[in-house]
Specification:
about 40% helix, alpha/beta, four-stranded parallel β-sheet, Rossmann fold
Length: about 150
């Protein structure tokens, strides 16, 4: 099983959107038995809550399930459990590195999947309100990530 973890700040906007989008793509390709996806945050404000209304709205528009998704924190156990830990921005990566065991974590930046984009971080729609922009970036990046996983791990 290949395990993927998306990381953002509160785990209610960007990372659960990426989790839901990648799960949807995996399901469509029949790879659910080979690739597992999760998401987590580095801040504890929303632990136990479902995705943000804006994330739910955009996923509903796209017919993508977010059922049973609840915000959680990145923990030390995650470092040994995930093949890919993908941070939405530099601040998230710095927060992950402060967690015991995180200093040596092999982190990827989501926007490195999209080198042609000018943006180097996924904007946080909790603050910008632009969930559509974030969905477009995440949808494109998840296509690249899935191709990479298939080539590297399957």
């Amino acid at each position: 099983m290949v395990n993927v973890l998306f990381v953002c700040l509160g785990n209610i906007c960007r990372s659960p959107m990426a989790e839901a989008v990648l799960r949807h793509k995996i399901l469509k390709l029949g790879l659910s038995e080979q690739i597992s996806v999760d998401s987590a945050g580095t801040g504890d404000w929303h632990v136990g809550k479902g995705p943000h209304e804006g994330t739910r709205r955009i996923l509903d528009q796209q017919g993508i399930s977010y059922e049973n998704m609840k915000a959680r924190l990145v923990g030390s156990d995650d470092f040994g459990n995930f093949d890919y830990m993908i941070c939405m921005d530099q601040s998230n990566a710095e927060n992950v590195r402060r967690i015991p065991g995180g200093q040596n974590a092999n982190l990827l930046f989501f926007m490195d999947l999209l080198p042609e984009e000018e943006l180097r971080e996924v904007p946080d729609p909790y603050f910008t309100g632009n969930f559509e922009q974030v969905y477009q970036l995440i949808n494109a990046g998840c296509d690249v990530l899935l191709d990479r996983i298939i080539k590297e791990k399957l």
